[in-house]
Design brief:
This protein has 189 residues and is mainly alpha-helical. The protein has helices at residues 3-11, 15-33, 40-56, 67-126, 129-139, 145-152, 156-188. It starts with a helix and ends with a helix. The model has no long low-confidence stretch (mean pLDDT 85).
Length: 189
């Protein structure tokens, strides 16, 4: 039977011609799809989908090249669509995984910051007021030692000594917490 007759018979809904085309081209089309995709089941699904579409659109078929070329082109296009679809899925999975990790880190960082702030406030409350005021003026208000000395009416060297003592006390108060925080940091890096 001529290819032209096969196309006309297919357009008219001849099931025998459709079966003939399926059995004639199926294996070669699956092998051809294998050039694009490594999974044979996916290749078989694509070939079957192309044949289903061929049957569904049979009355509107407009094949101006050979039927085999038409089928090869349809298989190639479907394989490329599958590859694009897989890439989109992989990108989405990577994006989701990355954002989940970031969310976990952000949550852990927030908890860590909150805990640190709570420990710092407790340590500052236990600190002698002369050291605490120098520390707060420098670290929270952003004042330089000279500005603090002027406000407290003390020497700049006194401010340095008080700040040194405040930092020493904070290191001692926060030692255990900072070790735990550092361990938590290492867990993510």
């Amino acid at each position: 039977m001529e290819e032209h007759d096969l196309i006309i018979g297919l357009k008219q809904g001849n099931k025998d011609i459709f079966s003939y085309l399926f059995t004639t081209y199926y294996k070669n089309l699956v092998l051809f799809a294998g050039n694009f995709l490594p999974n044979q089941e996916v290749c078989e699904d694509i070939v079957q989908s192309v044949f289903l579409k061929l049957w569904a659109d049979r009355s509107r078929l407009d094949i101006d090249i050979s039927l085999k070329s038409y089928l090869l082109k349809a298989i190639r296009n479907s394989c490329l669509d599958e590859i694009r679809h897989k890439n989109i899925i992989h990108q989405h999975e990577a994006y989701t995984l990355y954002n989940n990790i970031l969310n976990d880190i952000d949550t852990d960082n927030y908890i860590l910051y909150s805990d640190l702030n709570r420990h710092l406030q407790k340590a500052l409350q236990e600190m002698p007021p002369v050291y605490r005021s120098v520390f707060e003026m420098n670290r929270f208000e952003g004042l330089k030692y000279k500005e603090i000395a002027i406000q407290l009416n003390v020497s700049e060297r006194t401010v340095e000594v008080r700040m040194g003592k405040a930092l020493e006390l904070l290191r001692r108060y926060l030692k255990d917490f900072l070790l735990l925080a550092f361990y938590g940091y290492l867990k993510y890096h």
